[in-house]
């Protein structure tokens, strides 16, 4: 069983023979530094480590927001075979990152979307400040925050039928790859309706729309699409 982001990303990189990697939301670099891909690009508004400690000429860091990266710097790089979206945990920003990254993908690109299975209603609140205040008020020790990124999976379901996806069990992360889904029918057919969904809707829809699978089945599905 693949237990964390590093193991999942390296497994996806291996079956895809990935040679280029993009990570949005690097923070301390715990994941980024352990991905076994030759050419790597990291993006974060404020890195929480000294990026100068990595002198590898095939590693590039951009200390900017993802919006600025895609509008100013992404075109200076080649396309990416593996893309990890772990930036701001709101569906609006993550969906914008996904849409922007398509231009810098290729036919074999695989995305991994982080935090697509919130652990509870507070963790699913897109406003981190509100989540923190409520946890302090009710003395809740759980500090996890996934925001409403799960809605990105629903958006891909309805508006990107050319992409297939599957969600890893446990801490929710969703793999996305270019493969047209057969017999596609949109569920909501409305950006607004998806944006207004709440945690109760997530609980009702997760089994039918997240495409949750065992690790090996996801890897086999991605490999078959190559």
Describe the secondary structure blueprint for this structure.
Blueprint: H1 5-16, E1 20-24, E2 39-43, E3 59-62, H2 66-73, E4 82-85, H3 91-102, E5 110-117, H4 128-138, H5 150-159, E6 163-168, E7 172-178, H6 191-195, H7 199-209, E8 212-213, H8 215-224
Parallel strand pairs: 1-2, 1-4, 2-3, 4-5, 6-8
Antiparallel strand pairs: 5-7, 6-7
Task: Describe this protein's structure.
Strands 3-2-1-4-5-7-6-8 form an eight-stranded mixed beta sheet, with helices on both faces. The longest helix has 12 residues, at 5-16. It is built from eight helices and eight strands; from the N terminus they run H-E-E-E-H-E-H-E-H-H-E-E-H-H-E-H. The two termini are 22 Å apart. Helix 3 (91-102) packs across helix 5 (150-159). It has 226 residues and is an alpha/beta fold. It has one domain (5-224): Rossmann fold (3-Layer(aba) Sandwich), CATH 3.40.50.
């Amino acid at each position: 069983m693949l237990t964390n982001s590093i193991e999942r990303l390296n497994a996806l990189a291996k079956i895809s023979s990935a040679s280029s990697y993009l990570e949005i939301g690097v923070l301390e670099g715990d994941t980024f530094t352990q991905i076994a891909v030759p050419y790597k690009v990291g993006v974060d508004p404020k890195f929480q480590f000294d990026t100068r400690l990595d002198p590898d000429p095939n590693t590039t860091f951009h200390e900017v927001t993802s919006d600025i990266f895609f509008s100013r710097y992404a075109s200076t790089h080649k396309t990416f075979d593996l893309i990890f979206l772990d930036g701001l945990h709101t569906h609006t920003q993550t969906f914008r990152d996904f849409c922007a990254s398509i231009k810098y993908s290729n036919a074999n690109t695989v995305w991994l979307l982080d935090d697509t299975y919130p652990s509870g209603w507070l963790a699913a609140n897109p406003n981190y400040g509100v989540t923190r205040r409520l946890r302090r008020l009710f003395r809740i020790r759980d500090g996890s925050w996934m925001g409403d990124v799960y809605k990105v999976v629903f958006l891909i379901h309805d508006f990107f039928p050319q992409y297939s996806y599957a969600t890893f069990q446990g801490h929710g992360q969703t793999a996305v790859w270019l493969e047209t889904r057969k017999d596609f029918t949109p569920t909501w057919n409305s950006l607004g309706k998806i944006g207004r969904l709440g945690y109760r809707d997530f609980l009702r829809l997760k089994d039918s729309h997240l495409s949750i699978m065992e690790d090996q089945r996801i890897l086999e599905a991605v490999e078959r699409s190559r």
